[in-house]
Specification:
The complex is a heterodimer. Chain A contains 4 helices and 7 strands. Helix content of chain A is 34%, strand content 34%. Chain A is elongated and about 70 Å long. By secondary structure, chain B is of the alpha+beta class. Helices cover 61% and strands 12% of the residues of chain B. In chain B, helix 8 crosses helix 11, helix 13 runs antiparallel to helix 14 and helix 18 runs antiparallel to helix 19. Chain B is globular and about 80 Å long. The chains are: A alpha+beta, B alpha+beta. Strand 1 of chain A pairs antiparallel with strand 3 of chain B.
């Protein structure tokens, strides 16, 4: 009986260790620091070396399309200081930006911060929180 | 109407609470009338919540924008079916919908089982109503769908206000799949509450045989089937609505539905071990508790904005309450389990690593590992923030690296497990069952390798798929051939009768085959390619054997939306195959117009050509078009259909035919006898 149980234990341990190793290597490949614009600036020099996901609202009127490349700004108000901080973004991703990527949308860009202060993103997510939820929460709507 | 809905909710809240108290008190006092009253209250809850949901549907149908939820999720020009489906288009309504399905399930459970399991039923009701009460409280106090639209004025009390038109349903949700995806998903999520309630009742009454498992077997399968359908429809929706060319991205919301599915699948398999061998009793309890908790957790994830996701659900107040409910439910269930451990002793022990039991055990181990990995990856931003102070997200590579090998290993078990003998499989039987399937699969694999299939995982999954398919086909063939000898049926008749006489086993094989197909479709993703170009009228773009030519660029205008539309001819090896109409739409409701991409897809058994119209160039003369070449994608959906068909077959009661020679097979224990004979 003992020897059989040992087989199960060894089998399970092998499986779990393999998966743990795969998980670790997968993590190394795809991990990114998730920050808001404020947090990005607060992290100073570290910001240039990390792979980052930065969240902020798309500044109205800032979207400039240049072929496949899209330049725009995201901004976010610091909760404590009330200071509005903006980050210029250059989107060079292969996929088209999502439909939800419009003025004032909440965008999350993934990529790296260049030394020139422009964030080069190759992935982007966006959601239109402004339209669907914020106002719904307040319960008001501008009449047309 | 809103008042009626509001009142129905309030009444439901009271009645549900009464049902819990009456059921529990009735058991304590051994007072039959009180117990019966608790049951009637449970049925009353169903009526109350049904009334509430009908009211909400009515308010949508008549576009009553004095109600905030209606104003935020509908508009006058919205087609009627979308108006009705807007019931589950946002936070408040979808929670009400969840709660409603739960009360419907509860009523069915009560009607179906009241007489059969009189001792357990009061507890079952108490557990179901406990869950229901939590949701009713949420509807009533936290996210009430019947709240009025108001204008907030600083320093003053809010004023009631009726907007002239509603904000509109999110255009991404204006899609047939989105009409049915949430109900399917919820039918799955909610369905797991039933086996959970029976498990708790079994522990409370100390009736810990396999009664609770047998009673809820069909419920579990139904919940599992709906959850599978829900997940697949979600994938299908993402595929043709989001326009990035794929159907699964490991988004937290997708993961939320995947986690209960993974554990639910483990549970479905491991209960068989308890039924047949009286083993894994504690384990099954753990699994059903986790499945239930994961269903609630999945609802929490999608509804609270806890983690960043493509789904546009903002931060909302429900998170804290859900967390509290999960903690209460989990600790209650685990305490009970701990207390009842002495009653959950295993009747047998694992004897050999090459046995049916052991294959189930490994199936469970890796399904749980997969769930754990998905959970870990989804929650990593929150966990890392708590530990290190910075949010770290993991990307698709993490999920794929762990889950791809798991899926392939599961595939392997799918082929091997059902053919292994209980207790111990002899070398002889291994050879008999697996030698030829393995040889043929590997032989085909070698040929495919030299013909260019050199992507390791894709190769492995194709080889596995062939292996599993052969074992399944052979099972049907062997069974049918044996039956033909006994009955003189034709081969097809024999296959049908065989399946109908042992629905669970052969339905199971069909489900497994569905997985094989799904798996094949999914492996195709390894070979996806894409191309992009700015095309004027008459311009062409090529991808593999396909060429696309832009014939027309036009505009269109309807009450609900306006948009640009391209007319594109698709040629395969120069032969015209189809005309595709990818669009870019602007929906009119709401003050900010958001564009939506309507992709055009040409699907065949071999591959999909997926065309995205990204919009016009600045001068308006050319269209920016992106084309994806997705091999085998259709098999994902075909596999899904087969999987559902298999589940439906497995749900059928076994057809009993009178066998002249072997009447002992007619035992009440359904398929037990036949199943053990096979290996």
């Amino acid at each position: 009986m003992k020897r059989k149980q040992l087989k199960f234990v060894v089998g399970s341990v092998v499986i779990i260790l393999t998966l743990a190793y795969l998980a670790y290597s997968g993590f190394k490949e795809g991990n990114a620091y998730y920050q808001t614009v404020n947090e990005l600036y607060a992290s100073k020099d570290q910001a240039y070396t990390r792979r980052l996901k930065v969240a902020g609202d798309v500044v109205p009127g800032s979207i400039l399309r240049d072929g496949k490349v899209i330049n725009f700004m995201i901004s976010q108000q610091d909760e404590k200081t009330k200071k509005l901080e903006t980050l210029p973004v250059k989107y060079v991703g292969n996929d088209a930006p999502p439909d939800t990527f419009v003025d004032r949308a909440q965008a999350v860009v993934e990529g790296q911060l260049g030394r020139d202060g422009v964030f080069v993103a190759n992935k982007m997510q966006a959601k239109c929180a402004s339209k669907y939820e914020k106002e719904a929460a307040a319960g008001i709507r501008k009449s047309d | 109407m809103a008042q009626i809905g509001q009142f129905a909710l309030a009444l439901a809240w009271v009645v549900t609470a009464y049902s819990i108290v009456a059921s529990l008190l009735g058991i304590r006092l051994k007072h039959d009338k009180l117990i019966a009253s608790g049951r009637n209250a449970a049925l009353g809850t169903t009526i109350c919540i049904t009334t509430a949901i009908v009211c909400l549907g009515y308010l949508f149908a008549v576009s009553d924008f004095s109600i905030k939820y209606i104003a935020a999720h509908s508009n006058r020009d919205l087609p009627m079916y979308f108006k009705v489906s807007s019931i589950w288009g946002g936070q408040e309504g979808s929670l009400l919908f969840w709660g409603w399905l739960l009360t419907i399930y509860s009523a069915l459970v009560v009607i179906q089982n009241w007489r059969k399991h009189s001792a357990m039923m009061p507890y079952v009701i108490a557990v179901l109503m406990g869950t229901s009460w939590f949701f009713t409280s949420m509807h009533l106090f936290i996210v009430n769908p019947f709240n009025q639209t108001v204008v907030l004025q600083s320093g003053l009390s809010p004023l009631p206000f009726v907007p002239r038109d509603g904000n509109g349903l999110n255009p991404l949700l204006q899609d047939a799949y989105m009409v049915i995806h949430p109900p399917m998903l919820y039918l799955g999520f909610v369905g797991f509450a039933v086996p959970f309630a029976f498990a708790m009742a079994a522990m409370l009454t100390k009736q810990l045989g396999d009664t609770w498992i047998r009673t809820t077997r069909r419920w579990t399968m139904v919940a599992w089937m709906f959850l599978s359908i829900g997940i697949l429809l979600g994938g299908k929706w993402a595929y043709h609505e989001l326009g990035w060319g794929g159907f699964w991205a490991w988004d937290p919301v997708e993961n939320a539905s995947m986690m209960p599915w993974l554990i639910g699948t483990a549970f479905l398999h491991s209960v068989m071990v308890q039924e047949k061998k009286g083993m894994l009793k504690v384990w099954n309890m753990v699994l059903i508790i986790l499945t239930y908790i994961m269903s609630i957790f999945g609802t929490l994830l999608t509804r609270s904005g806890m983690v960043q996701s493509v789904h546009a659900f903002a931060q909302s107040p429900v998170g804290g309450y859900f967390r509290a409910f999960i903690i209460v439910a989990l600790s209650g269930a685990l305490y009970l389990l701990f207390d009842r451990l002495p009653y959950l002793k295993s009747e047998n022990q694992m004897e050999s690593i090459v046995s049916r039991e052991s294959s189930f055990m490994f199936n469970n181990l890796i399904l749980l590992a997969a769930c754990f990995a998905v959970f870990w990856g989804t929650m990593f931003p929150i966990i890392s923030e708590a530990v290190t102070g910075s949010k770290i997200t993991v990307g698709p590579p993490f999920f794929n690296k762990v889950n791809v090998p798991i899926a392939i290993f599961l595939m392997f078990l799918t082929g091997v497990g059902p053919l292994l003998a209980w207790r111990r499989a002899s070398t002889n039987s291994l050879q008999r069952n697996f030698l030829w399937p393995a040889v043929i699969a590997l032989g085909t694999g070698v040929v495919l390798y030299f013909r260019g299939l050199q992507h390791f995982y894709a190769w492995l999954s194709v080889v596995m798929s062939i292996f599993v398919t052969i074992t399944i086909v052979r099972e049907f063939y062997k069974g049918a051939a044996a039956r033909q000898v006994g009955t003189g049926d034709s081969f097809v008749e024999a296959v049908v009768n065989l399946t109908l006489r042992n629905t669970r086993r052969y339905g199971g094989y069909i489900i497994h085959f569905g997985f094989v197909l799904l798996f094949i479709g999914w492996s195709g993703q390894a070979f996806t390619t894409d191309a992009e170009g700015e095309l004027g009228i008459g311009d062409r773009i090529s991808i593999r054997e396909y060429t696309l030519r832009v014939d027309k660029l036009g505009i269109e205008d309807t009450a609900n939306y306006a948009g640009q539309k391209a007319t594109i001819s698709l040629f395969e090896y120069g032969k015209k195959k189809a005309t595709l109409y990818p669009e870019k739409r602007l929906y009119k409701a709401g003050q900010e117009t958001q564009p939506t991409t309507e992709v055009a897809i040409y699907s065949s058994m071999k591959n999909d050509v997926y065309v995205v119209f990204q919009g016009g160039t600045a001068d308006g003369k050319k269209a920016i078009v992106q084309v994806f070449y997705n091999p085998l994608t259709m098999w994902v959906w075909i596999g899904g259909i087969v999987l559902v068909a298999g589940t439906l077959i497995a749900l059928l009661p076994n057809k009993k035919t009178i066998l002249r020679r072997r009447p002992e097979i007619e035992s009440k224990e359904e398929s037990k006898e036949i199943e053990t004979k096979v290996s």
